């Protein structure tokens, strides 16, 4: 056997092994089961609610207690260009990145999509100081445990605030930063009265599946709803009628307080890496609109203006404005979202040589199961 043939056989074997850990998303198989689980009500850890890829658990300690961070680690098809870290918004979990994960892995990226502590399938401690610093630190600890030392960071909605804090804390490990309709582009507490955690919790306990849908319909999609958006309702609607509804209302209140009191926009000038802003121009999401006079509310959540101000504040920023799209671009117009994201990631991916990714993290750490 020639050396060239031997190398080719090794290449084929490694390629097969690298793809072996990946499961294709199967929404047709899981939608019915998930719908049934939501109808019954979801517990705090989303037991019985399927994610599009295998979920692993990272066990660690924070603030004197054991916590578990759920995450999906999906290998690239073939040679990996690099790692993309996807950070979800407040009303969501890593599961809603399914189509994005599929696209990124097909394009050659390994994808890590965690559920932050307090969200999704992760632990939801009530006696816990929720802060963007803490969430970023735990996310970084997860990546270090996986042997990942640099990643392109992508955050949507509240995930944009987590992503910004992560990039500020770990600039050397952040090859690029993408913010998709991030909240926190304005400091609401300058005009909106403070609402206590107890006040937030009282409001959250009044949630119903119908009110969740009405909020998302009005706030995210300008009053227009499509069946394709239904999965976005699942978790919030399921928790509203689930056995841990009161607990989840309290945890949600704690994270609302974090969002309201911990702005990141004042540190935009300190971002040292290339930044992409993907801004749906119809978005008007803002905290506290119902707590201020109508004339003040009309000035909040002006994403066309907020996006341009953010671009001006960030040293190396690119702004992509998506016309007639609201708060969740990857659901409203995936083609437009993809066209903005992929060229940016390819342009700013790590200069190191591509690496094979064999398996999906199982067995590499005693703290991961």
Explain what the structure shows.
With 369 residues, the protein is α/β, with parallel strands linked by helices. It has a single domain, classed as Rossmann fold. It has 13 helices and 8 strands. It has an 8-stranded mixed beta sheet, with helices on both faces. It is globular and about 50 Å long.
Number of helical segments with 4 or more residues: 13
Total number of domains: 1
Q: What is the strand tally?
A: 8
Mean pLDDT: 90
Largest sheet properties:
8 strands, mixed
CATH class: Alpha Beta
In short:
The chain is of the alpha/beta class.
Could you name the key traits of this structure?
369 residues, alpha/beta, Rossmann fold, globular, disordered N terminus
Outline the secondary-structure elements.
Blueprint: H1 3-20, H2 27-40, E1 56-62, E2 65-74, E3 82-87, H3 98-106, E4 109-114, H4 132-145, E5 151-156, H5 158-169, E6 174-180, H6 197-204, H7 209-221, H8 234-240, H9 245-261, E7 275-280, H10 294-297, H11 303-313, E8 317-322, H12 329-332, H13 334-347
Parallel strand pairs: 3-4, 3-5, 5-6, 6-7, 7-8
Antiparallel strand pairs: 1-2, 2-4
Helix pairs in contact: 2-8, 4-5, 6-9, 7-8
């Amino acid at each position: 056997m020639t050396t060239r043939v031997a190398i080719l056989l090794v290449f084929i074997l490694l390629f097969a092994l690298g793809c072996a850990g990946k499961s294709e998303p199967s929404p047709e198989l899981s939608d019915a089961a998930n719908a049934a689980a939501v109808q019954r009500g979801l517990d705090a850890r989303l037991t019985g609610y399927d994610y599009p890829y295998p979920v692993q658990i990272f066990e660690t300690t924070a603030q004197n207690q054991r916590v578990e961070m759920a995450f999906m680690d999906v290998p690239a098809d073939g040679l990996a260009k690099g790692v993309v870290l996807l950070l979800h918004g407040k009303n969501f979990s890593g599961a809603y990145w399914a189509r994005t994960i599929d696209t990124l892995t097909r394009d050659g990226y390994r994808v890590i999509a965690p559920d932050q502590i307090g969200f999704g399938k992760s632990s939801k401690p009530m006696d816990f100081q929720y802060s963007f610093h803490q969430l970023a630190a735990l996310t970084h600890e997860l990546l270090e445990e996986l042997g990942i030392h640099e990643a392109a960071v992508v955050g949507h909605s509240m995930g944009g605030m987590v992503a910004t804090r992560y990039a500020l804390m770990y600039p050397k490990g952040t090859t690029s930063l993408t913010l998709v309709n991030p909240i926190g582009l304005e400091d609401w507490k300058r005009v909106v009265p403070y609402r206590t955690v107890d006040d937030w919790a009282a409001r959250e306990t009044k949630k119903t599946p119908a009110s969740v849908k009405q909020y998302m319909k009005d706030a995210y999609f300008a009053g227009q709803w499509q069946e394709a958006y239904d999965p976005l309702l699942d978790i919030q609607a399921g928790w509203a009628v689930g056995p841990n509804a009161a607990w989840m209302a309290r945890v949600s209140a704690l994270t609302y307080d974090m969002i309201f009191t911990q702005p990141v926009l004042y540190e935009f000038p300190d971002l040292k890496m290339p930044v992409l802003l993907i801004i749906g121009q119809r978005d008007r999401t803002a905290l506290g609109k119902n707590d201020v006079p109508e004339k003040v509310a009309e000035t909040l959540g002006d994403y066309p203006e907020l996006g341009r101000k953010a671009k001006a504040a960030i040293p190396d920023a690119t702004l992509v404005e998506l016309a007639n799209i609201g708060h969740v671009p990857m659901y409203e117009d995936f083609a437009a979202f993809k066209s903005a994201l992929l060229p940016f990631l390819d342009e700013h991916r790590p200069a190191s040589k591509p690496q094979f990714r064999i398996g999906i993290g199982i067995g590499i750490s005693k703290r991961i199961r």
